[in-house]
Amino acid sequence: MAMDPKTKTVGQTVGVVVLMGALAWASVPFYDWFCRVTGFSGITGVAESGSDVILEKTIKVRFDASKERDFPWEFKPLQREMELRIGETGLAFYEAYNPTDRPVAGSASYNVAPYEAGGFFSKIDCFCFEEQILQPGERATMPVTFYVDPEIVSDRDAKYVKVITLSYTFHEIDLPEATASLVQETETDVN
């Protein structure tokens, strides 16, 4: 039994639409995975512990902070740069302040420049791994522990890097349900 040409065309079109939708849905997690594995686009690595190898060669790490437009916090690095031996564990601090009269939740995105260094910059612990909530008037010091992988000196492009810039951008996110409900209860009690 032969299929009607119109039915066949509609079936093919629906198939293409479903395939394109599936590819679009999978592209964001795949791109994120690709960037984390390769360091492409300045995405850093994540490590369980520091490097076993520490070289005598040093590298400067600069720290940068920004925030999304209309994000109410003040946000800055507490040091502008540090010089470390490659493989040595570094500890840097950022400070955030909520000058508003309401709790604000934020999430930090990050990258490393130059991009060639992204795959060799490994974070052991970072405030950016979790959402941050600051109460009205609260000031917080937030640490990041990291190292530059000694393999950087063997990479064709990255071995010429002398300075790495670690940048964070804070974005406002919705308050977790528990915090939001506490805020609502407090506002109801006041009224």
Distance between the termini: 73 Å
* Spatial shape: flat
Mean pLDDT: 84
- The spatial strand order of the largest sheet comes to 1-7-9-5-3
**Strand count:** 10
Describe this structure in words.
There is one protein chain. The protein is α+β, with helices and mostly antiparallel strands. The protein has helices at residues 5-38, 177-190; strands at residues 45-46, 58-67, 74-77, 81-85, 90-97, 104-113, 121-126, 132-134, 139-148, 163-173. The strands form 2 sheets. A 5-stranded mixed β-sheet has the order 1-7-9-5-3, with no helix packed on it. A 5-stranded mixed β-sheet has the order 4-2-10-6-8, with no helix packed on it. Helices cover 25% and strands 36% of the residues.
Label this structure with key terms.
alpha+beta; five-stranded mixed beta sheet; single chain; 191 residues
Secondary structure blueprint with pairings:
Layout: H1 5-38, E1 45-46, E2 58-67, E3 74-77, E4 81-85, E5 90-97, E6 104-113, E7 121-126, E8 132-134, E9 139-148, E10 163-173, H2 177-190
Parallel strand pairs: 1-7, 2-10
Antiparallel strand pairs: 2-4, 3-5, 5-9, 6-8, 6-10, 7-9
Short description:
The chain has 191 residues and is an alpha+beta fold. The chain has helices at 5-38, 177-190; strands at residues 45-46, 58-67, 74-77, 81-85, 90-97, 104-113, 121-126, 132-134, 139-148, 163-173.
